[in-house]
Design goal:
Length: 587
């Protein structure tokens, strides 16, 4: 499953209670509260909020007048436990007894305090839920004499984390498309694959066909629906698949850099173990252990919101780069089919499914963000996620993340990779690649604008597909290469090879050694004609072979014994052999 959407969703009304000690000995601290503005509105500015005494009444549930202390709650904000009666009964008793607000402490998951219209009209003090953990922290940090002010600052339209998501997404598409295109074209120049023993440096690519596209979309739809109904069971399957695929992607991205290291080139001893019988290099084995360890660490600490998102993003980017390098769309026709089908898929599951579900929730948004009624509270890892950087109730309460699905990177990235391959094919100075990458960035910016205006999850492919497809089509039309760009006909033939220029090679004559008689030199040439021919064509190898023959006493004696000079016919034969050897070497 590839989840493709950008999420920035407010699940409920969050606020803050600013707590400080009455003694003023320590700085104040903000705690998350969940409120319903239909009871009473909270001020947006802390300076306009009333700073009142917090009275700890958590020993009672405030369901009857017997739970009210003597003197009531005059100008105070009581903290009472949740349960035994409705929210309306609690807040009504608090208001009658002079309270200026009510904090209901809950050991369970926080939910907005509800009521009906008549109850809302009767109550004019704010009521909010506070977690039991925060209540304990208030007592531990500030003691029993504390003051608090409830307020709800406005949420920013866009968070700074959008800049980080934009850089990661555009950078991944650009690097992945460039890497995939360059690697694919480079392989076309190679006549023979390099065999490095037990290891292959080049991974096989997968050409996507129209049938594969249809099967892929059907699988995406089926998995998304299954996750919607059986989320708590299938989410762990997705997490396991992500750990495995991310470790492979990280290994693929780091292996080119590790191979440049001069250390660890030795191989492990011979063995009969699976995979290890290929005797991988020690450095590559250590890299595999490192990549698997990173995935395991993320899998164990994936719910640590403080830092686990960094590992998830790193693994996600590595996975996307690996997929862009492995999956190949051979034609622009295939790119158009894939992008348009997933465009319809994305729009349908974000905008149409709310009319088909009982709760009115989008299936895509519900699955990608995690169902609110999920017992596991797990999140799907197939997204880039960055926490909110602005100070706001939403960031304090639920630490939500802005999410960008891997599909919003992979699907346009395959088109960018195709454009880069076509650029190199037609030698167009990468105009297609640059134009498509810029179009992707513009489409992502349009997605952010729609997100800010609509304040709901957006199907990013709704904006990315038109931007990238129309831009690529326009460039091909402008360059009058649309026919070749559409069918990918330029990739059917091998790239033209540069002509081979054969330089004339002269066969030099051997210098005569003045210390050796001419008859002896001629005798050596006759007794070892192979040496003579190699010496004429390659003096270096001839000298090495001559040194070897000089160590053999029996051959030297035979050479000295033969004193006849070679005839003119023998010399002509030797020269013809030399020329034939030169010609065969050039061929």
């Amino acid at each position: 499953l590839v989840v493709k959407f950008l999420c920035f969703q407010v699940y409920c009304e969050y606020g803050m209670v600013h707590v400080l000690s009455e003694k003023g000995s320590s700085k104040g601290k903000d705690y998350c509260i969940l409120f319903n503005s239909q009871w009473a509105h909270l001020p947006h500015d802390l300076g306009k909020a009333s700073l009142l005494q917090l009275q700890d009444q958590t020993a009672s549930v405030l369901c009857s007048s017997s739970d009210v202390p003597d003197g009531g709650f005059n100008n105070q904000i009581p903290m009472v436990m949740r349960g035994n009666c409705t929210f309306y009964e609690k807040v009504r008793l608090a208001q009658i007894n002079g309270a200026r607000g009510l904090l209901i402490v809950s050991r369970e998951r926080l939910v907005p305090p509800g009521g009906n219209r008549s109850q809302y009209e009767e109550i004019d003090i704010p009521v909010a839920l506070l977690s039991y953990t925060d209540m304990l922290d208030i007592g531990k940090s500030f003691g029993s004499s504390v003051k608090g002010a409830m307020y709800a600052p406005n949420e920013p339209v866009l968070d700074y984390n959008m800049v980080i998501i934009f850089v990661m997404a555009v950078g991944t598409v650009a690097i992945g498309g460039y890497w995939a295109g360059s690697r694919d074209v480079k392989k076309r120049y190679m006549k023979h694959k390099r065999d490095d023993g037990a290891e292959k440096h080049d991974d096989e690519t997968v050409d996507v066909t129209p049938i594969m596209i249809c099967v892929f979309v059907v699988m995406c739809c089926s998995m998304l629906v299954l996750l919607y109904f059986f989320y708590d069971h299938l989410v762990y399957v997705i997490i396991g698949i992500f750990c495995l695929a991310a470790s492979i992607g990280l290994y693929s991205c780091l292996s080119p850099f590790v191979r440049r290291f001069p250390l660890g080139k030795c191989r492990i001893p011979d063995n009969n173990l699976p995979y290890f019988h290929k005797r991988p290099q020690v450095r590559m084995l250590l890299l595999a252990v490192f990549c698997i360890s990173v995935s395991i660490v993320w899998g164990i600490f994936r719910n640590e919101d403080q830092w686990a998102w960094v590992l998830q993003d790193a693994l996600g980017i590595a996975f996307c780069l690996y997929m862009l390098k492995t999956i190949r769309l051979p034609t622009f026709k295939g790119c158009t089919l894939l992008l348009l089908v997933l465009f319809v898929y994305d729009v349908f599951f974000v905008f149409i499914t709310p009319f088909l579900t009982k709760t009115g929730e989008s299936i895509m948004v519900e699955v990608a963000a995690g169902p609110s009624d999920s017992a596991t509270h797990e999140k799907l890892p197939m997204v880039l996620k960055v926490p909110r950087l602005n100070s706001s109730p939403l960031a304090l309460c639920d630490r939500p993340f802005s999410l960008l699905g891997f599909g919003d990177i992979l699907v346009p990235g395959l088109l960018v990779a195709y454009c880069h391959r076509f650029d190199i094919q037609v030698q167009s100075s990468r105009v297609y690649f640059v134009a498509c990458t810029i179009a992707y960035g513009i489409g992502l910016l349009v997605t952010f604008v729609a997100l800010a205006l609509m304040q709901m999850g957006q199907p990013a492919l709704l904006y990315l597909v038109p931007c990238t497809l129309l831009t690529s089509f326009a460039v091909a039309l402008w360059r009058r290469e649309l026919a070749m760009f559409w069918t990918g006909s330029g990739f059917a033939k091998d790239l033209p090879q540069p002509p081979v220029v054969i330089a004339p090679v002269n066969c030099p004559e051997l210098p005569k050694d003045s210390s050796v008689p001419a008859s002896q030199q001629d005798t050596e040439q006759m007794t070892n004609p192979t040496l003579h021919m190699k010496e004429l064509c390659d003096p270096t190898s001839a000298e090495e072979e001559l040194a070897d023959t000089s160590t053999k006493t029996d051959q030297s004696e035979i050479s000295v014994a033969q004193s006849e000079e070679p005839t003119a016919q023998n010399k002509d034969n030797l020269e013809s052999k030399c020329l034939n050897a030169d010609q065969s070497q050039l061929e």
